Amino acid sequence: MSQAMPSPGQNGPVVMLHDVRLTYGSHVVLDEIGFSVRRGETMCVLGGSGVGKSTILKLILHLEEPDSGHVEVLGHDIETAGRAEIFEARQRMGMVFQGSALFDSLSIFDNVGFPLFEHTELSLEEISGRVREALSFVDLDYRRVESLLPSELSGGMKKRVAIARAIVHRPEILLFDEPTSGLDPITTRTIDNLIVKLRRELHVSSIVVTHDTRSACRIANRIALLQSGRIIFIGTPAEMLASDDEYVREYLE
Amino acid sequence: MASGCAELSSDLTCGRMSSSRISPIRWLNEALKAAAYRVQSYFGLLGRVLASAVTRPFYWRDLAQQMDTIGVASLGIVALTGLFTGMVLALQSSVEMKQFGATIYIGRLVGASAVRELGPVLTALMVTGRAGSGMAAQLGSMRITEQIDALNTLGVDPVRKLVTPRFLAALVMLPVLTVIMDVIAIGGGMLIAVVKLDLTATLYLRSVYQSLADTGFILRYIPIDVFGGLLKPLVFGGIMALTSCYYGMTTRGGTEGVGRATTQAVVSSSILILASDYFLTQLLIALLIE
Lengths: 253, 290
Fold this sequence. Notes:
The structure holds 2 protein chains of 2 kinds.
Chain A: E1 13-24, E2 27-38, E3 42-46, H1 53-60, E4 68-73, E5 76-77, H2 83-90, E6 93-96, H3 108-119, H4 124-137, H5 142-145, H6 155-167, E7 173-177, H7 185-202, E8 205-210, H8 213-219, E9 222-227, E10 230-235, H9 237-242, H10 246-252
Parallel strand pairs in A: 3-8, 3-9, 6-7, 7-8
Antiparallel strand pairs in A: 1-2, 1-4, 4-5, 9-10
Chain B: H1 8-11, H2 24-53, H3 60-70, H4 75-99, H5 106-144, H6 147-153, H7 158-195, H8 201-214, E1 217-218, E2 222-223, H9 224-249, H10 254-289
Antiparallel strand pairs in B: 1-2
Helix pairs in contact in B: 2-7, 3-7, 4-5, 4-7, 5-7, 5-8, 5-9, 5-10, 7-8, 7-9, 9-10
């Protein structure tokens, strides 16, 4: 294993993107993207379909490399890091996928406990305790769900299990890709409350990619609005709602 | 296009071509570049599999599970293929050999054919159809439902966790299955020889042994044919697992993509197995027999 990755200061940014550009052939996906996320902050990335929102998460996770610019995660330039360092950095992050991405051949217990089985030497009893704690945190009755398979859960429950899996190893950064898409308003509100609860109780930094303005205003400390691969607005929800920018107004309406 | 794709997932989609209208020369150029990229990615995957096979962490449980899926679960189909192949070989050759009164040599024909060629090739093809397609479909489904991305984000190398156990399991199980196929094929031939051609089992088996002993021995006791017959499935197993996993890991385009990846995995593996069989046979003849 390579050298441990350094941690930024207590209040320093945990994620920084500097002037990032990414193209697929002649199609510019992201252009001049730059923002930072501080420890304990929730940043929402808003925008319509296909503007490159999810690609930002892939860049942070180093599932994609930018053509130019830099991505810093937990004080380390992810572009120059080796494979081992990248996997180590990923162990300090949690990701909730749009489709939940639960391992369909594993039970809910094994899904949530997966990062602990993989990366820790904890006993089964300790892992069991952590899994139940995570499931309870997302308001799921572990007695009822832990032996079920993902296919036996509803969409909202799958999302909550995905959040439990993302937080079970106590990450410093959480990434959410469209966490409320396809959910009814009540379940959406439940997921929003969970994201706020994560910030308040676990002080986790979150980046939430969404197209749901209402949801973003409820959970975000700051919002970045993307249009055609560029950030055209970045600020607090109140600043966004008060913005005179034509596209921002159009998006809000 | 992204300057360098970080993971195999995105790696292998880099060679994709635009479907917009382009000139034939540019199309050819793009097609060749894409093909070269696929070859590079294929061998890149092989390199990563070999590297992760000798470095920690090892996934012993996954390896055992894959040995069961590839080996134990394929026993039935391999046994049936062996039995009927041996019986058909004996039956077909008896028609010709009877004319010359040479039915006592049926064992030679069945033994040599089964051990040298039919055993390794048919086993590999049957396992490709059964287990290779399963590998491509399973990994393809994991790819399109973001489960492979999830592994990446959980700090687990998907190649190490998913591909290496399948590759190693195939390397171990294909030779074992081939030996079983060879024995059952020879047994099937013996059944026909004894029941239909009135040969004794001893005569038939002596004839089989003679055919294997004729080409000589390696390390004093191992017939060259048996050595070759065990080396081939080792290579075929690697080809089958790597090709199937490659297509699974690079699946794109939803459920239709999974179907396409599965078909491509089986077709490509089969062709590669048949082509490599020729070159391996050439090599073995040049090195061990000539």
